[in-house]
Amino acid sequence: MRLRFLYLLILLATLCAQPLAAQKKEMKEADKYFNSFEYALALDAYKKLMERKEPDAYLLERIADSYRLMNNSKEAEFWYAQASGFENIASASIYYYAEAAKRNGNYEKAKELYTSYARRVPEQASMAMKQAASCDTAMFWTNRPLSYEIAVEQKLNSSGVDFSPIQLPNGDMVFSSDRLPTDDSKKKERFNWTGNGFVQLYYASMNEDSTWSEPNPLSKEINTDFHNGPASFLPKENTLYFTRTNSVKRSQSKVNTDPTSWVNRGDGKGTGNINRHEIFMARRNGDEWVDVKPFKYNKPQEYSVGHPAITPDGKVLYFVSDMPGGKGETDIYYCERQPDGNWGEPVNAGEIINTSGRESFPSIGGDGKLYFSSDGHVGLGGLDIFRAEGEHGSWTRVHNLMYPLNTSRDDLGIVVDSSGTKGWLSSGRTSESGYDNIYKFREVNVECTLVGQTYETVDQPGTHIKKRVMVDNVLLQLFEENVGSMVETHSDSTGNFNYKVEAGMQYTIRGSKKGYLTQTILFTPDCRFSIDSLLVEMIMYRDTPNVPIVLENIFYDLDKHDIRPDAAIELDKLVRILKANPTIRIELSSHTDSRQTRKYNQDLSERRAQAAVDYIVSKGIERSRMVAKGYGETRLRNKCADFVECSEEDHQVNRRTEFKIIGK
Q: Which subcellular locations apply to this protein (predicted)?
């Protein structure tokens, strides 16, 4: 009887252990898919496991990671949120949770999570807090949209990823897509990373009614059975430069394997082959592609080279690589065509362009500028599109194209016309799955009303406090700089006037009236937020000789005479006055407060006055029209002389720059 009872206990323990052993086996199989970058298969395996066991932090994180690596930020945020309920959630998952929230436009939540990550990982605090601050920038831009119309190109897009369009000289389009083939023999061919097809290059013709024909894949000379694209076309040589992904034997523990964005995916434990990019060239001969050749600097056994962008003259080829010596995960490089026709050595585009993150998808706009995507520069989330200022070898800055050209999702692969105001781009902005679609965009002019006032400022009796006095009947001429047209009006009895203007246009308003100096204002109206009117103020100055006019906000650093940027803005206004009143000659004077010695103040004021005159001359005004004069502390405007105790505000009244008309 005792032996029988013991047998029953052993049998019960065995039966209980079987489900646990099965779960461990299933987890091991799911992890194998994950570590081999087969995230679509891993996701199915983890979700099946969820039906058999109580979820824990690890399982929830793996599901979230799979969605993240499949670029589905909506699902990734949801599953990271579930995992965050466990105390043993990994710090990295908090960061990925923040990234997913930011990609979904959930900026307040992202800020909170970046801050939490900074507390958890002090050595990463600086980076995390910069990311938190970028959420404020993203909210600011999103609330101040630029004036663009954006529409999805339904005919070009599929249920998969469609991205990086390029336009051929005849107006037709070539783009990349991982849509599943329509050929019955290939319907089962899927890329286990995403569950979609392999990236191929497709061609669509522009119909007479400006619609697109049904896209078809390029020929087998371009498209292999693996990934191909994106591409760039050089009309001058009728040549297509395109990316081709090859599978090579794995030789490193950490690799970049994503065929489209080259992120360090997974934890590096997978085995077998990895994906590496190469650039190939093919010449178009009628309807055929011939002379397919590899780029000289392909090196798939060591790193990727892809995403080509060729300049219209064929002299510079930009591309993306994770070759050693770069500044981040992927950098933009360029090669210059040599006199013998060969390509020179790759050159890193430098730290103005490249960051510690990902730079990718370069393109040359019809306006001749370099465009590219990055997640290392300040942006709205994911990849943002940037425009580079300058040229290769001497970049000066990069400009975020801002919302709505950029969104919280990935934005990439832009085509821009010669005006820089319309074209196509690819983006995951409206996709539930995170898949990219192709959109067309164009800048539109938004109209609003400019409301202006003309006035002069006069001292109140016995004080140096200014008050406004409206000036009526000022002739106001509005010039539209880009068109050259002019509209005239007059200020009314209360000094008010108005014009209809368009956002983004450059205007000049010239105001003139007998007894006053002619004034000009340059401005570019911002008609966003459905604002009905914008306010512009014009200060009118009397043209009475020898009456000093104080230039407001002309400040100098203590004991220095250099022209500061804020002072330059005010001096530019005087430049415009001198250009609008070409017959006047002025004295430009500088004054100090009573602190320091009289000689010191005299010398300092003379240097400051001369520096101001020199600056104005540099802006095109003849030196003979100006006299620089320093008065030191000899013309104080209040009681603050030597040994008189005064506030800083009172001293500031005496530190001023003035001009007065001394001749016509």
A: Cell outer membrane
